[in-house]
Design a protein that fits this description.
mainly alpha; Four Helix Bundle (Hemerythrin (Met), subunit A); 3 domains; 10 helices; about 75% helix; about 0% strand
Length: about 200
Amino acid sequence: MIVQALAFYLFAGIAIAASVMVIASRNPVHSVLFLIMAFFNSAALFVLLGAEFLAMVLIVVYVGAVAVLFLFVVMMLDVNFAKLREGFQNYLPIGGLIGLILLVELIFVVGAWIVVPEADLVARNPVPADPEITNTEALGRILYTDYVYLFQVSGLILLVAMIGAIVLTLRQRSGVRRQNVEHQLARRREDSVAIARVDTGKGV
């Protein structure tokens, strides 16, 4: 029990420190690396809770796909961050106002937090887990029964985000060459290939 508590505090502390460094790091590559560290420690916390499936999904999906994708995008874009920081003072009032609104909302949420009277009883006498049901099956039952509508809404939000990214990428911009599939398919062999007959010894 002591070892489990020490492991929890270790992983939780590293996860919190990595989360702070994601925001505090000036280099975006370092921020992505700290984000990957936070994901790994969160997966370790899931393992301590006995949710091995969630830990595997967190590593495979978020670390193996999302975070690595962020890392490659940040490294390949070659963004001039010094130029981006030049207009920081212009957006400071708007950013401060948004931050103040979020702070007020968090204060309202924490101030209105109510613990139900049954929470202490449930914590002391938890419902015993069915040994015949795996973590994956239990998660699937909850996800696709009690929260099926929220699951569908999250899928629609991701679909809209994907369509928006495609639309922003395919927008018309001057000075940028784009692929014309119809022109490529309509191209004839005579317009693309030229056969030149060169006599022996008269080549370039």
